[in-house]
Amino acid sequence: MYVLSISSLSEVKMDFTLDFYFRQFWTDPRLAYKKRTGVETLSVGSEFIKNIWVPDTFFVNEKQSYFHIATTSNEFIRIHYSGSITRSIRLTITASCPMNLQYFPMDRQLCHIEIESCNVLCVWHVSGVGYTMRDIRYHWKDGVNSVGMSNEVQLPQFRVLGHRQRATVVTLTTVGYTMRDIRYKWNEGPNSVGVSSEVSLPQFKVLGHRQRAMEISLTTGNYSRLACEIQFVRSMGYYLIQIYIPSGLIVIISWVSFWLNRNATPARVALGVTTVLTMTTLMSSTNAALPKISYVKSIDVYLGTCFVMVFASLLEYATVGYMAKRIQMRKQRFVAIQKIASEKKIPVDCPPVGDPHTLSKMGTLSRCPPGRPSEVHDPKAHSKGGTLENTINGGRSGAEEENPGPPPHILHPGKDISKLLGMTPSDIDKYSRIVFPVCFVCFNLMYWIIYLHVSDVVADDLVLLEEDK
């Protein structure tokens, strides 16, 4: 078997197409002839194939295949005087290749072609008159074990839960060749499979190949089977240029809003929404070209993280705007209280009563009413439901105001009204300028180190293509 080219490897259809020379060797003593000088082998055309026995070889996982007939049938038969026969034919086959896309696009796929003798021949009786139940009755030959299913059966969006059989089915006559009749083997050992050095694919490169000989047990007997496995490595260039780099740049663009003025609401909101929508479009277009599988791929992890970071930058501005609004409301309440205090002619900067030295030094003795203590509003009091009047009066009743007690000390706000939870809106922007890039860089380091290491798996006993060359 010599592979000429591999034209496609589809993740959506889970198959691959290859063009190769397929050569079979067997011995038929009936075709032996007496050796003559200069005539050790006879080469005959493909039309002679109808007159001799040939192995009923077929490809187990074949989806579609065809012979090449331009300009004539690409096939020849060579008969040795000892009765050994060589048949060479050029084929193009599309075979199934179940893929695990967990590490996509850093994955490595192992596709195989299985060769076996056609083990069942179905004999159908065609008649113009149908048979009723009196003439023929169908039943499952082996009861509940009559239906079997390969453990390799899989679908991108489904998993096979089980199967069952119902009343009847046609009885087949099996006349295939078992291990007692025919046995397949690789004629040249590890060199039986060759791959052309010109084999190339746009998104893959052929890492190597290996061959195996197996014995398959079916209900009709044991059968000889050969398998040729080819391992592919996906090229990352396309996905780096079209997906990874653009998504990383979109995340970086979302950080620009941290340097914009927080009052520039249209600019920051437009930037955040645009980056979120762009990431959504990129994720949708990427998954549209892939099968709808139920597990998470490595590219989903990267794009999902980028989407979360872009969305987080939009939420960061929402947090900044909310904090700025709350702080502004607190300032407005404090200004209103100061205004009421000034209307009542209670200077908020008067020192306590009983300190004439300070009053004369500041020159405010004439402005501060005698015997009238000065108070400063505590914003907490108003926020807890107290009225402005009670706040200015320090919460005292009218009787207490007429007979003031000892002068209290100057009251200062319990905390800075320009901060909320100990931070200002500008602090959040400053922290975000550092936290977001650091988190994204750390994620990239972990992502590439882990996935490149985990996906770097080479099949055992693989004949590397470089060594084969």
From TrEMBL:
Entries under PROSITE patterns matching the protein: NEUROTR_ION_CHANNEL
Molecular function, one GO term: extracellular ligand-gated monoatomic ion channel activity
Every Neurotransmitter-gated ion-channel transmembrane domain range: 243-448
Membrane topology qualifier: Multi-pass membrane protein
Coiled coil regions, renumbered to chain: none
InterPro entries for this protein: GABAA/Glycine_rcpt, GABAAb_rcpt, Neur_chan_lig-bd, Neur_chan_lig-bd_sf, Neur_channel, Neuro-gated_channel_TM_sf, Neuro_actylchol_rec, Neurotrans-gated_channel_TM
Record-annotated membrane-spanning stretches: 236-260, 269-290, 302-324, 434-454
Pfam families: Neur_chan_LBD, Neur_chan_memb
GO cellular component, one term: postsynaptic membrane
Family membership noted in the UniProt record: Belongs to the ligand-gated ion channel (TC 1.A.9) family. Gamma-aminobutyric acid receptor (TC 1.A.9.5) subfamily.
Protein name: Gamma-aminobutyric acid receptor subunit beta
Organism of origin: Spodoptera exigua
